[in-house]
Amino acid sequence: MLIAVHEQAIDPWQILSAYQAEQQHLAGKVGATNIFVGSMRDFNQGDGVQSMYLEHYPGMTEKQLRAIVEQAGQQWSLLDSLVVHRVGEVRPDDVLVLVATWAVHRGDAYDANRFIMETLKSAAPFWKKETLAGGEQRWVEKNSDGYQA
Amino acid sequence: MSIKVRYFASLKELVGHGEASCNVSAPLSARAVWQQLNPQQPMPNNVLAAINMDYAELDALVADGDELAFFPPVTGG
To answer: Do the bridges between strand A2-6 and strand A80-86 make them parallel or antiparallel, or are there none, so unpaired?
Structure first.
């Protein structure tokens, strides 16, 4: 399991490649790898967004992420999981979050990944402050529903 | 007895600082700690609290040495 909060840019493919190379004990066992990459849009709630500041609660954020991943591990049959989240100043197209789940079968990998992501959205202590195209700043008050079209 | 209090995001801006300490003579609820530290500032409706980095109800009691945090709904991911 890897839980990490990064202040620098996240390269999800480099992180996954390096992490998988270390997991030699899973060689031959993984039948399904599910990867979610969330990135920053340049619009939100009808406004252009030029940048964003992501604040977190060091210590509690990692503790809650670990608890969410452990809960997923109790609910689904997982071989391993990884969550990496960005904090600090971010710009459109920057990767904000990477969630990966490894399982024997795809159902567990898909469902656990979705659970981790949706639970993170409502329980992991991160807060976004947007700088709009015109320069005004505002806190994002609520995450959008992940199941909305 | 002393409690370390932390504020995050919009609440840090609302109260004007990120950390404070609260001296108490008996266990207090999280809500009472807010009222003691911010008598002029009513607590916003949607405030969340954590005690020692675990989510807690606003009526939960904090004790000597605890770290109490107040923050708005989370918006990560």
So the answer is: parallel
